Amino acid sequence: MKEFLMVFRMDHTANSVQPSPEEMQANMKHWQDWMGGIAAQNKLANPGSRLGSEGKVVTANNVVTDGPYAEIKETIGGYIIVKAESIAAAAELGKNCPILHVGGNVEVRPVVAMDDNS
Amino acid sequence: MENATLIPHLFRTEYRKLVSVLSCLFGIGYIQVAEDIVSDTFLLATELWVVKGTPQNPVAWLYTVAKNKTKDYLKHDTIFAQKVAKELQYRQGTTEEIDIDLTPKNITDSQLAMMFAVCHPCISAEAQICLSLNLLCGFGAREISDAFLTNKEVIYKRLQRAKEKLKSANIKIAQPTMPEISERLPTVLTTLYLLFNEGYYSSSQNTTLRKDLCLEAMRLNYLLVENELTNTPAANALVALMCFHASRFEARTNANGETILYDDQDTTLWNKELIAKGEQYLNQASQGSSLTNYHLEAAIAWWHTHKEDTAEKWENILQLYNKLLLLQYSPVAALNRTFALAKANGKPEAIIEAEKLNLTGNHFYYSLLGNLYTGLNNPKALQHYTTALHLATSITDKATITKNIEKLQNH
User: Fold this and answer.
1) CB distance A37–B356 less than 8 Å?
2) What is the pLDDT of residue B317?
3) Which of A8-12, A14-18, B69-73, B180-184 has the lowest average pLDDT?
4) From edge to edge, which strands make up the β-sheet containing A74-84?
5) CA B95 to CA B312: how far, in whole Å?
6) DSSP code for A109
7) What does the pLDDT read at residue A70?
8) What b-and-e string marks burial along B138-155, b requiring 16 or more CB atoms within 10 Å of the CB?
9) CA-based R_g, chain B, Å
10) Cβ proximity of B393 and B370 under 8 Å
11) Which residues in chain A are closer than 8 Å to B341, comparing Cβ atoms?
């Protein structure tokens, strides 16, 4: 089994309405059930982290600017690392991810192992 | 108590204490000597008490005889006189007779020290459980082999090998230091957890013996939470877990030793005191920030002390299993999680998730699928239950599956 990074992205500009506490709770449950499902298959290598909405960007000449949002609309909301036989199988695990219900997407990338020179 | 019942009773409660104290005194290389001295003491009791009557204070009698036999051995056995006795005299700072301390405090300390020695990572988990049963619980090779459904010789060899290994690694039987506690307590807890499970889920038909295994695991766990150094949140969580499970002892088997499934149990037989005790320990376990699998499993077990099928109950159990799996995967947790998913989110969703688990080879997996398909697709349910029946090996498991098949066919 190889490891794959799953990055959750969503359009931060689309969601201007603050979700209700009920919606937030339902959303939380979706995430917990979805991750629990991957863990139940013994395919969760690392539960990763959720990222806050703040952001700073450091560019050339050590210039620090606010937020990664200037040019792109999508921001990274979090990540996990899964175990799968292939990238196709890893992408399969990404199906039904709660981020998809709120207009986001899942990017799946192989983690390159130390001894992997391919 | 008559001798016929008194001596076995004392053997169960006192043998392990004496062995621990003497092993602590002599060191890891001489466990066998400690066992021999204590066995001799009981042999003498069996012979003498029949003729002369039971002494006024049988425990004190045993302690005195064990002490005298030990002193004799220290004097007359050449190796002991030269090596062990000298060392002990040096340690106790005396040239006089060696003191054999059988006060309650030293007995407890010795048992704790033994627990940490026996759970040394240099021997396998299986060997740790066997040795714990033997040295800390006073179980003979026969009883252990009954619990493990294997023969006496296998267990006997396993015990010998484990003792040899501890001896050659020169493990110290001593009060664990703080670094040793943080390093080895998880292993000790795992051993107690497995010991309890061995009793609780064993396929052995001997219900008394199974219950004894559980009670022994609980007793050893109490030793840990009663000691300041080992009274950790994890140890408390494990006691809580055991209390919640043990509360159903009287309800989970019928007079013939057959299993009564959770749904069919008479809740008036559930032990309310143990449940309350478990709640206390779980509160204790919640102090501090550590969250172990014992915390999560105890919380799940707490919800199971409420029989009503409420949405709140199953939603909570599902989320606890989700967390447990994130912490540590196990096939059992994966299967139970999927069962909780069916209760919380409905069977169709759970079927999709169950089929991803792919735990072929595990009869519980097919029993779960059988359960999930029941009512939605009964022929398919029957097919899964039949596969489960083929895969199951123990009588208890086969009986449970057969019952489910009958239920399905009578519908």
Assistant:
1) yes
2) 98
3) A14-18
4) A44-50, A74-84, A2-11, A105-110
5) 69
6) E
7) 55
8) bbbbebbbbbbeeeeeeb
9) 24
10) no
11) 33, 36
* B120 bridge partner residues: none
Residue B341: closest C-alpha in chain A: A33
This model's pTM is above 0.90: no
Q: Residue B329: its chain A contacts at CB < 8 A?
A: 39-40, 42, 44
Render the burial of B185-194: b for 16+ CB within 10 Å, e for the rest. Answer: bebbbbbbbb
List the single residue in B318, B326, B358 with the smallest CB-CB distance to A39: B326
pLDDT digit string, tens, across residues B277-298: 999 999 999 998 889 999 999 9
The token duo for B192 is 């107690």
pLDDT higher than 80, residue B163: yes
B185-206 tens-digit pLDDT: 988 998 899 889 888 887 676 7
Half-sphere exposure (CA, 13 Å, Cβ side) for B137? 28
Using alpha carbons, select from B139, B110, B102 the residue that is nearest to residue B11.
B139
Question: Could you say which of A29, A41, A47 has the minimum Cβ distance to residue B326?
Answer: A47
Sign of CA dihedral B13, B14, B17, B19: negative
User: Which has more confidence, B396 or B331?
Assistant: B331
User: How far does the CA of residue B238 sit from the closest CA of chain A (Å)?
Assistant: 23
A116 pLDDT band, cuts 50/70/90, is low
Task: Convert the pLDDT of each residue in B99-126 to its tens digit.
Answer: 788 899 999 999 999 999 998 888 988 8
Distance between CA atoms of B84 and B90, rounded to whole angstroms?
10
Gap between the terminal Cα atoms of chain A: 16
Q: Which residue has the tokens 């499902």?
A: A37
The two structure tokens encoding residue B261: 């499934």
